[in-house]
Amino acid sequence: MTGAWLGLYRGGIAWESDLQFNAHPLCMVIGLIFLQGNALLVYRVFRNEAKRTTKVLHGLLHIFALVIALVGLVAVFDYHRKKGYADLYSLHSWCGILVFVLYFVQWLVGFSFFLFPGASFSLRSRYRPQHIFFGATIFLLSVGTALLGLKEALLFNLGGKYSAFEPEGVLANVLGLLLACFGGAVLYILTRADWKRPSQAEEQALSMDLKTLTEGDSPGSQ
Question: What is the pLDDT at residue 114?
């Protein structure tokens, strides 16, 4: 629907033209909302797959989301530079930069703890709740920032015609509702305890070994 809005009412997308700006909303919606949301759901959708497989898929989706979002940021800054427009003056732009920086830091820390082989099992276990919390928080901030940007674009492009129920405004409003519903659906799935990934045999073995070691006994003493 984002592509339909940009194609029908904003002229489409082209990098070397005035249409370069349109790459920004499309890339941000694809990267920081669609791909990020699906990355968060990997452990719910593939509940019974091998942990390593789901972990790699989770990380890859976040990499794709980060790269596509970076393209969207480059598009808007490059467009502003060519047109001589000011940068980072609106609430949307402040929230956008905050979200991107938080997302990048979250990915770096997540890679260090869960994909890089040097992190210990106990360290991963202690950090996992924070990783899940910040992941969901950044996703919801991404949705909110997209809604701010959508409203800003409509007011800038339509002006007073926005209140006259212009077709573009109606379509964009529906898009905003769908983004909010998608965010709510992802959060609902993430918070359902019965949809969480069950502990696999190797994870249970590691937990038992860790518990035994912290109690002062060796895993093979029983």
Answer: 84
The closest of 95, 130, 94 to 109, measured between CA atoms, is 130
Residues 87 and 93: beta-carbon distance below 8 Å: yes
117 burial via Cβ count (<10 Å: 0-12, 13-18, 19+): exposed
**What is the rounded CA–CA span in Å between residue 37 and residue 41?**
7
Greater model confidence, 221 or 175: 175
Burial 171-204 (b: 16+ CB within 10 A, else e): ebeebbeebeebbeebbeebeeeeeebeeeeeee
> What pLDDT was estimated at residue 203?
55
Q: Are 40 and 135 in contact (CB under 8 A)?
A: yes
* CA gap 6, 178 in Å, rounded: 16
Give me the domains of the chain, ranges plus CATH numbers: 2-195 (1.20.120.1770)
Apex CA 101: angle with CA 96 and CA 103, to 5°?
95
Show the tokens assigned to 168: 């573009």
Q: At what angle do helices 91-110 and 121-158 cross, to 10 degrees?
A: 160
Give residue-wise pLDDT tens across range 160-211. 999 999 999 999 999 999 999 999 999 999 999 888 888 765 555 444 444 4
Burial status of residue 5 (CB atoms within 10 A of its CB: 0-12, 13-18, 19 or more): buried
Residues 6+ apart with CB under 8 A from 119: 112, 113
CB 198 within 8 A of CB 47: yes
